[in-house]
Amino acid sequence: MSLDLDDPTTDPFDVAREAAAFLASATGVERHDVALVLGSGWGGAADLLGETVATVPSSDVPGFSAPAVVGHVGTIRSVRIAGDDARPDRHALVLGSRTHLYEGRGVRRVVHGVRTAAAAGCATIVLTNGCGGLNPAWGPGTPVLIRDHLNLTATSPLEGATFVDLTDLYSSRLRAVAREVDPGLDEGVYVQFRGPHYETPAEVAMAGRLGGDLVGMSTTLEAIAARHAGLEVLGVSLVTNLAAGISPVPLSHEEVLEAGIAAGPRISALLASIVRLV
């Protein structure tokens, strides 16, 4: 019988270890090296990374559930990344969906994928998302590296007196690797709101005055949990729309999906190239 992640007396890291053990058995891969969380628009990257060794329905894995958002894929994949003379083959753990805080399932569920990746052996995690942009020069379809974040969710994935330094949360080394693939990649500060409603123009203006460049509803809690678990973090946002008050048209989830589909082949190839180098 699986441990109950929602039971406050259960250690969430025990559930992550249980999930990692399940994945090792289901995929036949004892240890994974790098994890990817694929947000809106990024799903095609898994097909370009290498050979898919196994695909597991998320809802079969302890602590995971089926995705609640259109555009996310309800599977976890193990992908073999071919090596060369300088590097052996590696395995990527690809999470096709994430749990968002606005779903109301609790913050433990939000970061369970990250903790499972760490328990599965990963040393690096790539967090992607689709987001609104504050810079008018970043049109829909623009990938932007996350340099830092503002967590406006009023919560944390860490429990108790758990003090973790977030000074260099988004790895400068990994951002440099990404720019080896595409020197033109810009950087920005990602601001997470709780959602699921889009931000008001006043909230977007506030985010800009606080130093934000990108606004969305995911990623920051996962990044904090990843740092706590010892993972090196690369964050990449896909600007799917201009944020409220900057965009001349009303916002919609359909717009987000359409922008992701249009940019999908290009950003998926970019991400796969980056992951092969990290």
From TrEMBL:
A GO term, aspect molecular function: purine-nucleoside phosphorylase activity
All copies of domain Nucleoside phosphorylase, residue ranges: 34-276
SUPFAM superfamilies, per the entry: Purine and uridine phosphorylases
Keywords, alphabetical: Glycosyltransferase, Transferase
Gene3D superfamilies the record matches: Nucleoside phosphorylase domain (3.40.50.1580)
EC code(s) of this entry: 2.4.2.1
Pfam families xref list: PNP_UDP_1
Catalytic activity: a purine 2'-deoxy-D-ribonucleoside + phosphate = a purine nucleobase + 2-deoxy-alpha-D-ribose 1-phosphate
Quaternary structure and interacting proteins, as annotated: Homotrimer.
NCBIfam families to which the protein is assigned, alphabetical: PNPH-PUNA-XAPA, PRK08202.1, PUNP
Stated family: Belongs to the PNP/MTAP phosphorylase family.
Function: The purine nucleoside phosphorylases catalyze the phosphorolytic breakdown of the N-glycosidic bond in the beta-(deoxy)ribonucleoside molecules, with the formation of the corresponding free purine bases and pentose-1-phosphate. Cleaves guanosine, inosine, 2'-deoxyguanosine and 2'-deoxyinosine.
Protein name in the entry: Purine nucleoside phosphorylase
Source organism (scientific name): Cellulomonas alba
